[in-house]
């Protein structure tokens, strides 16, 4: 059993292997397993303003260098969706290898709502957006919202990059096969 706090417990679920002949890619669970084989970086998306919010996300990518643009995908049911639309932009903190607990914190729906969720973490307001930029991250990007595209149950937020910076760190945090992993950026793959 996993304790959820306040005396509430739920059973720990175990994944039962499915024979390859029975796996179907069209099912959401099957697609989740397939996509789990694609390692992605971990970011925390943030928005400032009255609807200020933060959210762990691995659905983030560069779109264009000229003009500088990035995108992130957010469920339309998520509080982050409303926060980005309300603020008219967002910031991205690319997490370092030692920030696993920070990733978990911003993925936990039980954290405080609004800007109060940032009370227990170190951050500075983005100089152009006011969105929280998390201390200790590898890199930061501030964006104004350029376009919103429908993408199934998510929205694709295309952001025009207003500012970007990076730290001197090299260790990164990635998500792969359902878990967080630390990668030492000084180690290079060999051919």
Keywords:
mainly beta, Pnp Oxidase, Chain A, disordered N terminus, 3-stranded antiparallel beta sheet, globular, 7-stranded antiparallel beta sheet, 191 residues
In short:
The protein has helices at residues 28-35, 79-87, 100-107; strands at 2-3, 9-10, 40-41, 43-47, 53-57, 60-65, 68-75, 89-94, 123-125, 132-134, 139-151, 154-166, 172-176, 179-183. It is mainly beta.
Can you put this structure into words, describing what you see?
It holds the Pfam family Flavin_Reduct. Residues 35-182 form the Flavin reductase like domain. The protein is mainly β. It has one domain: Roll (Pnp Oxidase, Chain A). It has 3 helices and 14 strands. The strands form 4 sheets. A 7-stranded antiparallel β-sheet has the order 5-4-8-11-12-7-6. A 3-stranded antiparallel β-sheet has the order 3-13-14, with no helix packed on it. A two-stranded antiparallel ribbon has the order 1-2. The chain is globular, with a radius of gyration of 18 Å. Residues 1-16 and 22-26 have low confidence and may be disordered.
| CATH architecture name | Roll
CATH fold name, please? Pnp Oxidase, Chain A
How many strands, which pairing sense, and closed or not: the largest β-sheet?
Answer: 7 strands, antiparallel
Straight-line distance between termini: 45 Å
Protein name: Flavin reductase family protein
GO molecular function, one term: oxidoreductase activity
Region (Disordered): 1-20
InterPro entries: Flavin_Rdtase-like_dom (IPR002563), NADH-dep_flavin_reductase (IPR050268), Split_barrel_FMN-bd (IPR012349)
